[in-house]
Amino acid sequence: MILAIDTATRAISLAIHRGDRLQAEHTWRTENVHTIELAPQVALLLNRSRVGPTQLSAIAVCLGPGSYTGVRIGLAYAKGLALALGCPLIGISTLEVSLFGAPAGAASVAVLVPAGRGRHILARFAAGDPDGPAWRAVGEPVVLDLAGLRRELLSAPPAAVVGEWESLPEDLTLALAERTRLSPPSEAIRRAGALAELAWRRIRDPHEPGAAPVGELAPLYVGSITGGVA
Question: Is the preceding omega at residue 133 within 30 degrees of 0, hence cis?
């Protein structure tokens, strides 16, 4: 049984995953009160699912990039819980979780992650090779203000845009919709169910990176992410 925790942005999501099915999930938007809301909502989710903490076999946590404070709060809580329960902790990036909902067959994808103060992280990916990661990073993720993001996306539109795009101005959203495929609003918010499923795949697949020692997991910031995404 995996508990997944994602507090990387103002969209907080929690999930309990059994491997064969998603047991429960709770996703909401917070007004930067992650510290106040996180622990009570985890307890509530476990209680509603009739899952005791000792039944958890692993904890999955989103490592960012995203909100500096939000990422650190979720990771600190997940580390404490994993240490207390003696179970493995699996860290996965915001970008990988966002790519989980990328449309099949898209040749290129742009991932958007809010970075606060009206800025967004933009990361571009191209479809990977059949025998390698599903997505290959194209360049490094960058932090852009709204004007920069507008220039980047409209001058070189990807085949699809995923991640939290719904906070963009309506005129930019309409312009993007004419040039690319926007993920539906129901998928424009990261869901911890996807985070949990990615963690489950890592546990089951010997070729995937597994759980890291709790003390070694650190937040991911722009500039520290390279390579492909499975």
Answer: no
Q: Could you list the residue range(s) of the whole structural domain that residue 10 is in?
A: 2-93+190-229
Cα–Cα distance between 75 and 63 in angstroms, integer? 7
In angstroms, what CA-CA distances link 18 with 21, 63, 225? 5, 22, 29
Q: Are residues 15 and 39 in the same domain?
A: yes
Task: Give the total residue count for the chain.
Answer: 230
Cβ contacts of 13 within 8 Å, gap of 6 or more: 4, 6, 25, 26, 27, 28, 189, 190, 191, 192, 193, 195
Same domain, 172 and 111: yes
Residue 230 has pLDDT above 60, yes or no: no
With b meaning 16 or more CB within 10 Å and e meaning fewer, what string describes 62-94? bbbbbbeebbbbbbebbbebbeebebbbbbbbb
Digit-coded pLDDT (tens) for 187-205 = 889 999 999 999 999 988 7
Determine the number of helices (DSSP H) and then strands (DSSP E) in the chain: 6, 11
Q: Note the pTM of the prediction, 2 decimals.
A: 0.92
